[in-house]
């Protein structure tokens, strides 16, 4: 999750020119950002201005030395429609900020098992039923048509590749036509793969 935090927050090191309105003077705030040991937190130190917790505690404001807001950092981000909270620790001088994402409840994120033996078995059963009730015949027809087309178009060099391509197309078409439940079963299984 630490990589997601870094990517989601666009963290880098350099000089920020954050201004939500035309600057009334110099609104430049330099900063340094680093990932903390362990990779669970990101720390940022400003060379001027300060971090201030926004009212309501849902964001951290970056303000210049005069107290004008330059930018706002939200303290939650969305993953699959669920908000994941981020804890913020502002240093005593207000110039340092450490952000740490909190582990969300797996039920909130809709985490599911990676591999399902049941989905695999259902896929195999549906494909087998389709093969026995029309897939095999269509594969043979497709192989014959593919061989003829391959031989005619590519003068005997394409006979075997044409037959293989035709057989594959025929088998898939035959299985799906004979058993419409085969295609959804394949997609259900593929959704369980990592």
UniProtKB/TrEMBL annotation:
Pfam families registered for this protein in UniProt: DUF8020
InterPro entries associated with the record: DUF8020 (IPR058333)
DUF8020 domain: residues covered: 29-103
Protein name listed in UniProt: DUF8020 domain-containing protein
Originating species: Rhodococcus spelaei
Classification of source organism: Bacteria, Bacillati, Actinomycetota, Actinomycetes, Mycobacteriales
């Amino acid at each position: 999750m630490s990589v997601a935090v870094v990517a989601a927050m666009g963290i880098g090191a350099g000089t920020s020119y954050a201004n939500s309105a035309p600057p009334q003077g110099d609104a430049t705030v330099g900063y340094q950002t680093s990932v903390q040991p362990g990779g669970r937190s990101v720390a940022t130190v400003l060379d001027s201005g300060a971090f201030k917790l926004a009212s309501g505690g849902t964001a951290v404001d970056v303000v210049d030395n005069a107290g004008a807001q330059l930018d706002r950092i939200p303290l939650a981000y969305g993953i699959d429609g669920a908000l994941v909270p981020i804890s913020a620790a502002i240093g005593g001088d207000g110039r340092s900020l450490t952000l740490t994402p909190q582990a969300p409840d797996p039920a909130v994120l809709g985490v599911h098992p990676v591999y399902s033996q049941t989905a695999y078995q259902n896929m195999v059963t549906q494909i087998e039923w389709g093969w026995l009730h029309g897939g095999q015949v269509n594969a043979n027809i497709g192989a014959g048509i593919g061989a003829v087309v391959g031989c005619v178009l590519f003068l005997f060099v394409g006979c075997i590749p044409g037959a293989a391509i035709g057989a594959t197309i025929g088998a898939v078409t035959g299985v799906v036509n004979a058993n419409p439940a085969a295609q959804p079963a394949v997609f259900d299984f593929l959704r369980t793969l990592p």
